[in-house]
Amino acid sequence: MATTVLPRPKAYDDSFFKPISIWLTTTDHKLIGIMYMVTGVLSFVVGGIFALVMRLQLSQPNLHIVDAETYNQIVSAHGVTMIFFFVTIFLTGIANYMVPIMIGARDMAFPRVNLLGFWLVPVSIILYYSGFFTGGALDAGWTGYAPLTEKLYQGKSLGVDFWALSIIVWAISGIMASTNFLTTILGLRAPGMRFSRLPLFVWAQVSTSILLLVVGAPLALAMILLEFDRQLGTQFFTTAGRPVLYQHLFWFFGHPEVYIMILPGFGMISEIIPVFARKPLFGYMSMVAALFGIVFLSMTVWAHHMFTVGMNTYVEGFFMLMTMLIAVPTGIKFFNWIATAWWGSVEFTVPMKFAFGFLATFLIGGLTGIYLASVPVDTQLHQSYYVVAHLHYVLFGGSVFTIMAGIYYWFPKITGRLLGRTLGEWNFWTLFVGFNGTFLIMHTLGLEGMPRRIATYANPAWAATNLIITVSSFLIAFSVLLLLINLVQSWRNGEIAGNDPWQGNTLEWATTSPPPPYNFERIPPVRSFMPLRDLRESGELVES
Amino acid sequence: MAARVRALLTFAGLAATAVVLSSCDVGGLHPIFPNPVSPNGQDIYNTYLLISIPAIVIFLGVEIALLWVVLRYRRSKQPAGYVPPQVHGNTTLEVVWTVIPLIIVLAIAAGSFVELQRDFQPISNEQMTVVVSGYQFGWRYDYGNGVIVNQPGTLVGDVTPFVVPTHTLVKLQFRSSDVIHSWWVPAISGKTDAVPGYDNFSWLKIDQVGKWRGECAELCGAGHSTMQIIVQAMDQSDFNNWMDQQKAAAAKASPSPSP
């Protein structure tokens, strides 16, 4: 039985991605994945700098570090950068890298579509930032509500046009990536990799890709109609038209986008907790079912962003009910994660710390989501700092913490070297404290009546809270700096990781670190949803 | 050990913060909205409390479970060579933690829906109607009798108050002549958007004399943060005097053409 099916060299070899020229034309899903991820991290830094400017401006009442028009551009740029260019792009990258390896494939189904899809991202980014050099970028928030974005109110600058074009290109790129993921997962699975054995991260990518396929086109449509209004004089969303129609189109994309940014994170957590608890994932089938429950429900809740525009109360009741129902599949996932670690032999490595940090903080975002779903309560909380706090508990406590967990978990596979543990511990604790210090007390500002997106405020009662938030936000910045130092230092001189530093369950750990361009010399056999663990336990895995 | 101490300290810190937030009013930190002065605001306040009961229970339950895993099941606490039970799931448990949250959210949704029907339906028994128009950057209040109060936005000093009589059910009709604005005075009730193209509505009924502040809650341009709101409630007799002054001032400003 103990035959050598997996001869794996222990030697660390990254020579194949050394030449610069290879990066420009490569169709290798791993190199494209790395480029997506690097783009994402750079956007994270840029978006973070925007956030720090906002926090400085709001640290005390009546500050005018930047004027109101610039502030509105910065608010918008922070949202656009973080949502479109950081979280979504980074997650596409990590999936681009991991999904083909995890299902035992040699590349994505359409490598050249992958290449084109990636290179549309810099095009989209350059288009958006061009707005800053043409009289002012988008200044109506990342949601860009009409009619504020219409020519009558934004005639001077081309910022809105550049933003709309950028988002259209971004949506096309996302649709390409989603099609590619779905085809890859449907068509290129290794022998034995049945649907009932797909790793949860791959299932998460299936659900994310379906979501982006469904909602990417309506987003592009909203932008195209807005451009018609601005450049061709149509009246879709103008004062004479239907401004609220824009909100429907935008949020039909915008709410599922929240899940596009968190489902891959759910997938990563479902990979990381079993590995470090040394237990199989609890409730595999209900985890998969919960993913698709979320996918379905997330497409029926968009108007909960619009409870103050004056809809029929029965329509509002429907959107309220559907929104609250999302708590059920999310709850299933939470309880299954905890049950996975229960009775385990849990090793709190840095990725596991971030996974638990995610659980502890995302819970708060989920619970405040129930308050916001309740129509009467939402009329108080909507567009206030309570919402800012909520969305950061979901997107920072959720997406960013899972991304950090993913970085610390998969960096050794991608580079062949471990991320420094001491810096990693500092990274986690400064981020955890800085994050909660920034966003926990923001809830109270919203309850007291501080609206979001105000360039400044006169109320002295908000001063102390805002100052604490600003100080904490710089702790987050310090933490991100630690991450960057760790990334650069470890990529150069980090400890050699070996092929399987964590004793993983899934196939990416069955090949070398970093994997060769063809991923596997021989595709390993798959007998359960933890194929590598099977091989390790049956003794078929022999290091050469 | 050091990691455990740090974990304990962090959770203790978070718990202390939560206790502070929920028990006192120091430094302008409120765990809930300002005390409502209008019945619809009071109903929203009560709905908020209703949701808080299961929310706090779930929050504490899950965080304690996480803390238990962190403290009890960490590898250093397990005996050497401990192999965890290879459990793949438990149907009964999974059904339980699907059905219980379902019941909780259905109850919350039902409670919220009752409140939604009570306070957010169009009213017809109003004793007074005011048309509130948002514009870049300020509010205009049309009492329908020729008196219009303009509340231009500013961050320097107080804006002109919007005056209403006490013990009177006032219907507010919201309009906008340019972009979308949102009228929000947290002590009175939730916010209502002023959207160009159609009328939106809300109402208030204040039973005490006083002044309450709010501001525009929908990003509407460079002057967004200046769109402050002050609502002032006066006794009926004071209100009548005020209204007479306004009428006289309006007549002086634009004398009506004599027949």
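Chain A touches chain B through 99 residues (CB under 8 Å).
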